[in-house]
Amino acid sequence: MDAGYWLHLARAVEEAGKRLYLQGRVPGSFYDGRGQEATAVGAALAMLAADVACPLIRDMAVHLVLGVTPAEMFRHYLGKAGGPMEGRDGNIHLGAFDRGTIPMISHLPEMLPVGMGVALARKRRGVESVAVGFCGDGASCGGVFHETLNLAAVWRAPLVVVVERNGYAYMTSEATYLPVAELSVRAAGYGMRAWSVDGNDVVEVHSAVSEAVEAARAGEGPGLVEVFTYRMHGHGAHDAQKYVPAPELEQWQSRDPLTRWRERAEHEIRWSPAQQAELERRVSREVAAAIEDALDAPYPDIDDLAQSVFA
Amino acid sequence: MSTGVVTYVEAIRLALAEAMRQNDRVIVLGEDVGVGGGAFRATEGLHAEFGPDRVIDTPISEAAFTGAAVGMALDGMRPVVEFQFSDFLTSGMNAIVNTAAKMHFRHRLPVPLVIRAPAAGGFAGGPFHSQNPEAWFLRTPGLKVVVPATAEDASLLLGAAINDPNPVIFFEQKSLYTRVKGQFTYDDRATLAGAAIRRAGTDITVVTYGAAMHFALEAAGNLSGEGIDCEVIDLRVLAPLDFRTIAESVEKTARCVIVHEDYPNYGVGAEIAARLVQRHFFHLDAPVMRVGANFWPIPFSPPLEAATLPDTSRISDAVRATATF
C-alpha cells in the first residue's frame, strides 16, 4: 500500500510540476522520472533512518519517500522560500540532508563517492549507515563511476549503487554508449556483488535493493543493483524525444510501473477499484494543496545571498 | 604549544599530528600518505601513531576519494586530503569546486574539508609538477585559499584550516619544504584571516605570498642599499583577501608592486591592481606593477625554468622602476 501511495504521489507531483512549467510558472527547466518511479520508490523504501541517498534526475520520488513534502517540492520547483534549497538551486537539484538526501550536482555521477563518505563517517561514529547512490546507464560511462566502485570495494564501504538502465542519455540511445548487454557484469571486475532486476516492478526493486543494503550494512561491502526500466519522457520538458521510435514507447507504456503495482495489488491484496479511486483522490487533494501553498509562498531573501557563501 | 625550530614540512607534519590528537574526527587520506609517509614526507609517522583507520592510503582516484572526503565532512568529520601535487587538483575538481564549494550556499551545510596541495616550481619538476594553480580556485565562491610562506604559518594556518568549517585549499610550497625553518606554532583559536607585514617600509608596498615572498624580501634588502625602503606584505590567505592591510600600506607609500610565482595574467596581482585603481586611484603616484611567471607552461630544463619563474633580480627591476616612476 505504501509503495502504491508513493508511486501515485510522485507521478502526480511531477505531472503537476510539468504543467506549471508549461504554463510558464516554473522557471528554468523541468525534468521528471516518468516510467522510473518504481525504481526510486522501491529503493527508497529499502532504506533506514540513518541511511543516506544520492538521488539524481529520475529519482524525485526518493525525496518524497524520505520526507520532503509535496509543498516543499513545489516551493523548490518554483524557486520559492521554504524549499530545501531556498531558491539557490532548482528543478531536480535538491536534497534535504536532515532527511537523508544529499543535494546532487549536475556532474554525473559525482554524488556516488559523496554518499559513500557520509555513510562511512556515520559508521565510524557507531551509527550503522548505508549509502544508496543512483546513477543512469549514461553516467555509468564516466570515470568517477569506476573510481568509486573500485574505492568502495577496496574499502568494503557500505555503498549500494542503483544503476538505472533507462535506455537513453539525453538524446543518445544506449547502443551508442554501452558495449555490454548487462552492466551488472562490471561489478565482478571490482569484486562486488550485483543484482539485475525489473526496474518497473516496485516489489522486485525493493527486494533487490533491500538485499544489497542489508549486505552492505552487515559489512559485506558494496553492491550494484542494475534495474531495467525506461525513460518515458524526454530528458526534460523541453525535449519532445523525436529520436525515440514509437513502438519502443508503446511497448514500455504497457509496462508502466503504476499499472504494474496495481495489477500486483489486485492480485495479492485484493485491491479494489474503490480503493484505487480513493488513493487517486487523496493524491490529487494533497498535490492541489501543495501547489496552492507554493504559489502563495514568498521568494527567498535576496539580502541573505552573500552571507550564505561560507559557513 | 611549541616544540622548537622546524622546517616547513616538519611544521605541517606536526600540525597534522597535533590536530589529530586534539580531535579524533580529523583524518588524513591520499596517495601514499600512510605507510609511505607521503611523497614529501609530510605525513611521516602519522600512520604509526594513528593507524590505518585515520591515515588512509587511497588508490589513484582523486575524484572518488575527494568526493568521499566531502561526504565525510558533511557528517562532521575533518578530513585532510593530500593531493600529491597541486597540478593533480584537476582530477578532483568537481568534488572541490562544485560539490564542496557550493554546498553551504545551496543547502546551508558546512563542509569542513582541507585539501593539501603541494605547489610551486624551481626544482625541475616540469609542466605537471611545478604549477601554481591558486587562481583556478580564487574565482570559486565558497572556497578558502591559503598559501603559507613560512614554517610558522605552515603549522599555524594548517591548524586554522582544519578548524575552519569551510573547504580550504592549502597550497604548500614545495620549494620551501626543507629550505625554510621557523617556530612550530599551533593555536586552537587561530583563524584564516589577515596578511602580515614582513618588512616595514615607507617608499613602496610589495605585496606577495608563498615562495615568492622570500625573493621579494631579498630584493627589498638589496634595494634598501639603493635608498628604496620597501614595505613587504605577505598575504598568507588569498581568500578571503585581507585588502585592508594592502590599502593602508599603499595609502602610506603611494606605490605598489605585486609579486607571485603564479602567472600575472588574471591572477592575484591582477585583482589587487584592479581594486587599488578602483578605490585608491588618487593615492597612487605610479602604475601598479605585477611580477610573476612568464605565460607559458613551466619547462623542465633548469635554465628554461629559471627564465620562466620570477626571481630576485626581476622583482628588483620592477620595484626600482615603480619607486622611481
Structure notes:
- The complex is a heterodimer of chains A (311) and B (325).
- In chain A, the strands form two sheets. In chain A, strands 1-2-3-7-6 form a five-stranded parallel beta sheet, sandwiched between helices. In chain A, strands 4-5 form a two-stranded antiparallel ribbon.
- Chain A is built from eleven helices and seven strands.
- The longest helix of chain A has 24 residues, at 273-296.
- In chain A, helix 1 crosses helix 2 and helix 2 packs parallel to helix 8 (202-217).
- With 311 residues, chain A is of the alpha/beta class.
- Chain A is globular, with a radius of gyration of 19 Å.
- Helix content of chain B is 37%, strand content 18%.
- In chain B, the strands form three sheets. A seven-stranded mixed beta sheet of chain B has the order 3-2-4-5-7-6-12, sandwiched between helices.
- The model of chain B has no long low-confidence stretch (mean pLDDT 97).
- In chain B, 58% of the residues are buried.
- By secondary structure, chain B is of the alpha/beta class.
- The interface between A and B is large, with 41 and 40 residues.
